[in-house]
Amino acid sequence: MREWIVAGNWKMHNTVAESTALAKAIKEGAVDIKDGSVILAPPFTSLHGVSEILKGSDLLLAAQNMHYEDKGAFTGEVSAPMLKDIGCSYVIIGHSERRKYFQEQNADVNLKIKKALSSELTPIMCVGETDEEREKGITQEIVGRQVDHGLKGVSRIENIVIAYEPVWAIGTGKVATPAQAQDVHAFIRKILNESYGKAANGIRILYGGSVTKDNIGDLIAMGDIDGALVGGASLKADGFLGIIREISGKK
Ligand code: 13P
Prior knowledge:
Mean pLDDT: 97
Number of helices: 10
CATH class: Alpha Beta
Helix content: 40-55%
Number of strands: 8
Strand order of the largest sheet: 1-2-3-4-5-6-7-8
Number of domains: 1
Distance between the termini: 9 Å
CATH architecture: Alpha-Beta Barrel
Strand content: 15-25%
CATH topology: TIM Barrel
Bound molecules: 1,3-dihydroxyacetonephosphate
């Protein structure tokens, strides 16, 4: 049995005051939900404030990115020890927006995954194809490469979460059908199984891309979809809590 995860990726939204108010509302609304994990990923500037709000609750804190070195002359970057220090237990790695706007390559993702693991942060590694790649019929090739290269040299995958986020579904309102998502999730589990054997059965694979409380029910009913990585709908407590309730009742 895999425990579900719902993670809210707030992206570049919310001041400290807005973040702490949102975290408080989610914490209060999620108080009776215990059968999975709820993770909040505010922007760096709000990590400390949200961390304080989440203290004493079951909600977990994630960063949206990190550097693969512990420290050094890397202006504008933040490291794994800094994230641990502020209370993060998860970190999103290789989001498609990082790949698209900041030229992150699979090799960078791989270094970050290794650093997160050695720092005892659980990475949520994002993969997904573009519209054009899906139309060309190369979804599996692209996603397979992102998984293989992202995890190159990683000997144990127990502490990794994968998020399948088709780029064409992110922020577009064009959610993948449950069958489309399930196909890719099953494919990811198959290739993990080839490299890591039975451990692949325990890996949580989240779906992301235009998830709302109205469409998550059908997605989460699929066998290999273990939760959601939510963007826009995580910015309002009601919408996010609605997603959590849909998932916790079904997995
Ligand atoms: P949306 O839910 O806004 O489509 O964003 C998904 C996402 O990128 C989460 O990481």
